[in-house]
Predict the 3D structure of the following.
Amino acid sequence: MMYRDDSFANQTLPAWLEPVSTNSSIVLSSRVRFARNLAGFAFPNKATISELNEILEIVGIAIKKEQTMVQSFSQTNYLPIEQITTLQAEFLLERHLISPDFLHRMRIKKDSKPENSSGRGVFINRDETISIMVNEEDHLRIQVLSPECNFANGFKKLDEFDNNLESNLRFAYSQQYGYLTACPSNVGTGLRASILIHLPGLVLTKEIEKILRAIWQIGYAVRGLYGEGTETRGHFFQISNTVCLGQSEQEILEGIEKVTSNLISYEEKARTYLINNTKTEIEDKIFRAHGVLNSARLISNEEAFNFLATVRLGVAMNIISDVSIATLNKIMLLIRPANLQMFYNQEMPPHERDEKRAALIRELLKNSNN
Amino acid sequence: MKQCSICQKPEVNVVITTIDKDGQFLELALCKECATKKGVGEIKKVKLTAHEILAELQEKISDEDHNLICINCGLSYADFRSHGRLGCEQCYVSFALKLEPIIKRIHGTTNHTGKTITNTKKKITDRYEIKKLRTVLQSAITKEDYEKAAKIRDRIRIIRLETKQK
């Protein structure tokens, strides 16, 4: 397992950013993940460093063993956490390839406690649709990211992967509880399915709270941009299942698909309401956002993200036509602090980032005009 | 510590959301007494998230919890209550009686359905596990730790029973 300098293709973009259909403005991406543990080993929080390293090695071998795995992972990046800089780890978090918890373990490494970070690593395929975190909360967290709401394809990929790994690994499993996990909230299928959904219409019509509450009451979690414990931004919300036990994988996926299609129809209704009742106000908001993005010389990540999200709404509502949803998705990722620094291949203090960010946004918006 | 919105007592039993006359959402945290008075005693089955259910466990950890230890990884039940994370797959057996109601609260059930690992593989796992447990059992007997030995023997019985049921 080697670490390569070109592991971070800093100017390439993940495949899940590219919308499949043109009107895919509401759901940005969908994610499915399995939590798995190896039988016979303590879970990561109770394992020793040497056990963690052993687990990492076993998983690495399993990934290389299977023919299908070798194919899809022929250009895999393997990143042992010890060798990732904080900036690179933040970059991975911003691209949804590692969790905030993994990043946290990465950060405490800096406080010279090697036992907190050793024996952990992440496998990522070239188009960034598959990532396997080793020794986060569970031994394995296997995730597949897809553009839009596409659980069928994403899950097929994940399931195949899991089957391949299972033919080489012994997973902790019980007759009663299914796949055993460090936290009882993941036990059973170990499947978490989530969508990243853009709901500005519901926010502007002030319907959002009521709807999110209803979603929560029927057993789905609403979270921020990077999952548990993170804030929402630009009216993007992450919705995921909370029950993993007693429902089959298929039932879990059907459930979240149903919630998603309901949310889409509510959001569409809200957008229609806005255009019919507050046309000038909504146009004003969108054109102002567009104006700032086209003119600003200094812009923070948060401000830029919010304005880009507003312009994204404008494109979806046919108010703005000179930029595509795909371009906006791309800009929204590239301007995040670590992504921006990786894009320019240099570490920058916040003020300099704000300047570069403003310039990059102007440039990318201008290019999309042509 | 949260307070009751009515009597200010530092005890919250129920959190309800109502809509006031301006159409705004209003959150009320009530103690048991005030909730009953308000006639919302029945709604005490407020849906909690897994996170909240696990957070509740952090309160009132007893000596008994400290003494209940997983024979495989050494995690105490008190450790689990403080951090919400189990130490190994055997913890599900070691703390079986205590975990079952928690799992039921989180998922609404205690029985897995869906993808399973293949039977042959399960048997290999069991055989491996029994072999491993026998070694631990032997050393417990040698050390005259009969309490531990009894626990391991029970565990072996459970695995055998599970295998037969298939």
Q: What stands out?
A: Residues 41-45 of chain B have pLDDT under 50 and may be disordered.
